[in-house]
Amino acid sequence: MASPLRLSHQNFFIDCGRKSTPARFERLRVSCYPVSSAGADGPRFSNEESQSRLILLEKYGNGTSKRYIIESGSRIQTILGERLPETSVFQGSAFVEHDSELRWLPTIIKDLILPAGFPDSVSDDYLDYILLQFPTNVTGWICHTLVTSSLLKAIGIGSFSGSAAAAAAATVRWVSKDGIGALGRLFIGGRFGNLFDNDPKQWRLYADFIGSVGSIFDLSTQLYPAYFLSLASVGNLAKAVGRGLRDPSFRVIQNHFAISGNLGEVSAKEEVWEVAAELVGLGLGILALDTPGISSSYPTMTLTWLGMQLLHLWLRYLSLSVLRFNTINLKRARILVNSHVLHRKVPGINGCNKMEDILVWERFMKPRIIFGVSLEEMITGERRGFMLRMLHKLYAEEKYFLVLNQHQTEFEVFVSFKEGATGVSVLRSVWQSYWLHQNWSESDVAFHHLGQSLMELNTRFDDFLLQLEASGWDTSQIILKVPKEILVQEHHTL
After folding, report:
1. What's the whole-number mean pLDDT along residues 367-371?
2. 169: buried, middle or exposed (CB in 10 Å: 19+, 13-18, 0-12)?
3. pLDDT tens per residue across span 300-353
4. Is the Cβ–Cβ distance between 453 and 432 less than 8 Å?
5. 421: exposed, middle or buried (C-beta count within 10 Å: 0-12, 13-18, 19+)?
6. How far apart are CA 12 and CA 14, in angstroms?
7. Is 261 left (phi over 0), alpha (psi -120 to 50) or beta?
8. Is 0.85 topped by the overall pTM?
9. For residue 450, how many other CB atoms are within 10 A of its CB?
10. Which of 16, 242, 246, 267 could covalently link to 20 via disulfide, CB atoms 3.0 to 4.6 Å apart?
């Protein structure tokens, strides 16, 4: 059982009791072995190394940090750091300085409205364009509201009472429905904007699923007309969330098509296909409404909609399944790595994309790999100082730390990344995880087996990359993002 950790300093006092550690941290233990033990139990340390002072600085995305200081004899101190200056935000692989014009803006707002790594991740004209686009869109929606009022008046809303106020009130309710839906797009774009590059096929399909749920609320308005505004607003919210997932995902797919740098033309031709489909669909929909058996019976209309919606989702799945990406995301990386570990060869682009499951979330795939784990979670044992020294020496040439959770019923790997880690670092950790999964047994000594996996990684990973290039994979487009919430910085002093 873990005991409370009490640390004192002339300027502060830290009392880290049981409540300071999340519940899922407490159930994790990783075996530690004395540094003086033989190589089978872990790395050996020279006298100079064992007497040196190891400092690991764990930096968090919110600007705070935690310092792990391992003194001679592997005694460990944990010091919580202050928030970093507001002019820096931990994004990308390092701290980047924000544009001087936006220093006044709170960090949480910057994360919501600006791309990760701004300003280095976008072109120089991005901010000027966005700042002018905002008032442009505001005026456009003002015009939309006024036009909506005219349309409602034209169909008789407010005309029978002779009151312009009635039409205005109806306009407010109608536009409010659209406004509630817009909140969904705001949330998706601000909170999940970093997901679409990794798996556009999955999120494009999920967009249609969520949009279908929104349509159910719209259909319900006929049964409960008194709750029209509430049902229509919820339906609009769900469909707006779907649009928030659909549009960015499809832009990534369009960029995949434009291999000649002709993204504008590809987008324009896609618009042609979409408009043609819209005209045909509207025509067939009008014919369906002119059919007495459908228009006069709500159950029949609902069943017709359900049949068309299921057909729509199935066709969407088929259309996304034929896409053949030559970039490496996490799902495709798992397929490629698993094949190389087992058979010493990698599948081609067509074969790998066919094996990629669009529907499944990566977090449910086996073996389970948890990225961006804190050091506190990885070393919840009584001999934490020994373990940190071992991990530091074992992964001296890597840009990550990797350990196994041996006290779970299922195989589970934790990965913590160092500063400077890249997509290749993530790919190396995935390769090591799969080798461990294929070769692990309960009787193995933890650090000895980790050392074996690193030897295999260093021996075979170059061959893995060569096979990827030979099979046509774009190794310059490894879309494996390093989690930026936690990164570790190392210092080793005498």
Report:
1. 91
2. middle
3. 888 888 888 889 888 988 888 899 999 999 999 999 999 999 999 999 999 999
4. yes
5. buried
6. 7
7. left
8. no
9. 23
10. 16
| 52 DSSP 8-state letter | S
DSSP 3-state of 89:
strand
How many C-beta atoms surround the C-beta of residue 383 within 10 A?
17
Residues above pLDDT 90, as percent of the chain? 18
Among residues 57, 137, 126, the alpha carbon closest in space to that of 95 is found at 57
Cβ atoms of residues 249 and 207 within 8 Å:
yes
User: Rounded to whole angstroms, how far apart are CA atoms 243 and 238?
Assistant: 9
Alpha helices by DSSP H, 64-125: 107-113
Contact by Cβ (8 Å): 458, 450: no
- Single-letter amino acid code for the residue at 413: V
Can you give the pLDDT at residue 155? 53
Amino acid sitting at position 465: L
Q: Kindly compute the dihedral angle of the four CA atoms of residues 226, 231, 236, 241, in this order, to the nearest 10 degrees.
A: 170
Per-residue model confidence (pLDDT) at position 316: 87
CA distances (Å), origin 76, targets 23, 79, 251 = 22, 10, 49
* 343-349 contacts, C-beta under 8 A, 24 or more apart: 344/460, 344/463, 345/467, 346/464, 346/467, 346/468, 346/471, 346/473, 347/471, 348/471, 348/472, 349/324, 349/325, 349/471, 349/472, 349/473
Over the stretch 82-100, which tens digit does the pLDDT of each residue have?
A: 554 443 434 433 333 434 5
Residue whose entry in the numeric block shows the structure tokens 């002709």 = 262
CA distances from 348 to 8, 324, 471 (A): 58, 10, 5
- The gap from C-alpha 270 to its chain's centroid, in whole angstroms, comes to 27
* Ramachandran sector of residue 123 (left: φ over 0; alpha: ψ -120 to 50; beta: rest): beta
